[in-house]
């Protein structure tokens, strides 16, 4: 069997086009700046646009991400990912299930699943998710109605149980992560046998007036965590 190309999950950007986050900036320009600054993977998350508009936006973003070798995923919508020809999807517990998504998108697609508990994480890992988006770590105004806030200790428990079940599924966590806490999140979530492969952020980059610089500085924090005592 041919191994899938390794994916760099270290700085995972989730987009948000709502005025509260994006302001009057242009989505494509912000994503371009973030890619220049070093985000390694991008998820188009847009709960408002209708089908045709979403495919159009995805194709625009793909023109930016693809030449940079940065995978583009679409939140929730397997059909949109197929229509736009992007690299994959991110599905939540209430979206199309992973097995069906895999059947539709094929073995090479990147499929990520949201996991809020050990049970959800183990199930998604067993079902063949490429990565898990673990969270919500900290409460965040970016996403209302988040299920439970699990904190860094909740993330650590999930990593521990994935490792003891023998899974090498990749993991990022999401929710309230910014420049001020990124290194602490990496440090506090690490279990002896498994650590996060990256951090996912929305507002830390999307709401920034300088998304390129926001990505550069976050990437530095992630790639070189401090020598905590
Ligand atoms: N899923 C859980 S929290 C969240 C999502 C999409 C939003 C995270 O946004 P931010 O601005 O990085 O806290
Ligand atoms: Mg969803």
Automatic annotation (TrEMBL):
It comes from the Eukaryota. Residues 11-205 form the Thiamine phosphate synthase/TenI domain. Coiled coil: none annotated. Condenses 4-methyl-5-(beta-hydroxyethyl)thiazole monophosphate (THZ-P) and 2-methyl-4-amino-5-hydroxymethyl pyrimidine pyrophosphate (HMP-PP) to form thiamine monophosphate (TMP). In the N-terminal section; belongs to the thiamine-phosphate synthase family. This is Thiamine biosynthetic bifunctional enzyme. It comes from Extremus antarcticus. The gene is THI6. The chain holds residues 1 to 229 of 519 of the full protein.
């Amino acid at each position: 069997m041919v191994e899938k190309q390794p994916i760099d999950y270290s700085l995972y950007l989730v987009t948000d086009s709502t005025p509260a986050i994006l302001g009057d900036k242009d989505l494509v320009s912000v994503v371009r700046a973030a890619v220049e600054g070093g985000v390694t993977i991008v998820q188009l998350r847009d709960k408002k646009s209708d089908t045709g508009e979403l495919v159009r936006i995805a194709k625009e973003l793909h023109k930016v991400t693809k030449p940079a070798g940065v995978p583009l995923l679409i939140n929730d919508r397997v059909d949109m990912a197929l229509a736009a020809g992007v690299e994959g999807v991110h599905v939540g517990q209430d979206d199309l299930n992973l097995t069906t998504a895999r059947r539709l998108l094929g073995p090479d697609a990147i499929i990520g699943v949201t996991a809020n508990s050990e049970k959800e994480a183990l199930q998604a890992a067993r079902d063949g998710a490429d990565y898990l988006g673990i969270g919500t770590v900290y409460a965040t105004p970016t996403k209302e109605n988040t299920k439970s806030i699990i904190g860094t200790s909740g993330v650590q428990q999930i990593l521990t149980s994935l490792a003891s079940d023998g899974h090498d599924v990749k993991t990022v966590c999401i929710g309230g992560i910014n420049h001020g806490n990124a290194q602490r999140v990496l440090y506090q979530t690490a279990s002896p046998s498994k650590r996060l492969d990256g951090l996912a952020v929305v507002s830390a980059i999307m709401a920034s007036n300088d998304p390129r610089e926001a990505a550069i500085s976050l990437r530095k924090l992630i790639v070189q965590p401090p020598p905590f005592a």
